[in-house]
Amino acid sequence: MFTPERMHQINVLVFESELDEVTKAIVRLGILHLIQLDENEPWAENLRNYDAGSLQGRIESLRDRVSKLIETLDIKELPMKSVSDRYFNVSQADYDKIESEVSEIESTVEELIAEKRRLNAKLDRLEGVLSEVAPLAGVGLVDVLKNPYSFINVYYGQIESDNYDFLVDELADMAAVVLKLSSQDKRKTRVLVIGLKKDRLKLKKILREAAFEEIEISEDVIEETSGANEQLDERIAELKEQIADIDAKIREIAAENAPILIDYYRTLMVAHLLIKVKRYLKRTKKTYVFSGWIPAKKRRMVEREILRAAHGRAIIEVISPEEIAGVKEGKVKVPVLLRHPSFFRPFEMLISSYGLPDYTFIDPTIFVAVSFLVMFGMMFGDIGHGAVLALLGWYIGFKADKLSEPVRLMGRLVLYSGAASIVFGTLFGSVFGLEDLIPHIWLKPMNNIMYFFKVAVYIGITMISLGIVFNIINAIRARDIKTGLFDHAGVITAVVYWGGIGAVSLFLSNKPVPVELIVYAILIPLIIIFLKEPILAIISGKRPFFKEGIGTYVMEEAIEIMEIVMGYLANTISFIRVAAFSLAHVGLFMAVFSLVDMVKGARGGLLYSALILILGNVGIIALEGLVVTIQAIRLEYYEFFSKFFLGGGVAYKPIGLGESPDREK
Q: How far out from the chain centre does Cα 270 lie?
């Protein structure tokens, strides 16, 4: 729990005749984190890779096509944790059948999608015309020609009656409307044509072909032209109905083909994983060899399943990381799996955002969970606000549908943070900023400012000290004595830090600071840090060597000591922000209540007071909740992690259908 899950490397050799069954077993297990053998073993560089031929490209292409269809048809794909044996036994004829049926569905769907896209574009253009015409409904369209800012053009004139149908047909696919007006000459039909200015060249061409004769618009056509809105509305309603019909057809296709598409997707997903596993194999004359990492507790199960699949015809070697030369030399990375109870999953996300710890290093997840919630609760301590956050986090983390796993984890983090706020709100006696509603259990921050600052600093000292201890433990586990002793968070620096904390505490308490404390806990350790290079050279039996000269060395070490002293001082003082933001939380409420007092005596003051209280609380929850979260994460990353967390770990990503949330597909 305090270190990543223990791993073992597994090396397997199988005969070619057993390869397919062993590959299927690996995919079913979903436990093996495969590695390229030739990256760690020079002797494997000359071995051939598995050749999947054109099958790999065909499978991936089909899988992408089916996946796109599932997305286009909005089919809810079922989770694929386990599948039946038939998915592992697919022939070339099966792929031909899948391709044929997928092509047929694609053809139908693409035609409908293309038609829907065309209708939507036409609808958008007509709605644009309507938005221009609608304001002129009461006065007609006479002024449109005089308006230089209009997006439409209006053409009023007459055509041969026989050409009317031609004109309507030609403009059917454009964002244009033809309004038929009364005419005394039966051989001629008066028309009003409205279209977008950007289509003016096409419009003029069609009008010329229809032998359009323009007539000057006069005031007496106002009543007749007012019908343009109705005609546009009719055409828009007609288009929406056509689009709705297409949507209904797409839903019908989805309902009819959902089972078969999901079945095909699973078939192709399994085939893709089988090929993916085989890409890690190296081939000899009659055998294949592969290597990977597995959790130590899964060792027996993996061995048993591989031997069963190979009918006992396999050689399996399992090695602990400590026995691998490449791991000792730092050339080979052991994959990292952080495994904790479900409660800690959101905090694993915070760790991963910064970086994964190295396999041999401390896993700080539990410590981050405790410290983050304590700091958040202190900075945002309010029962009412905590309850709001907790309810919101509970809904996002456990009740809301269609949310991704990272979003759900964020919801759970909000829930836990809200619970921490409730706890500290109870300790502070604060409910929606009301400090006198319930008695406090611990203290009122505004009434105990200096004490509260001390508590914040003590939290900082604890976290920084913990980071130093973790760094020393990491150095011991890595057998890096130099880092453990002389690092910026090593043993000697720790003595200086703790000695300085002791000296400052005594001084602030008006007690004498022992000379021995200053000499032995501060001065001598600083001198050792200053002389670390000569000391290390003597210990290793080498002659002290100053590459850039003694003067340069003295300057560099003096600057380094100054950086250590000032850095730790800044790190410790930085935790004062925990108390500062708690006081700011109370201060914001004081501002809100002051505004309420200013308006409550005015006319309608009760309503204004209620609005100010509601909006004030919403603003404080949203703004300060975000700021407090950022500050808590910042203290974790920059003041705590900086002491021991180097990152650089490789995530454990097994290939297959197993239960691991980090498995690779």
A: 26
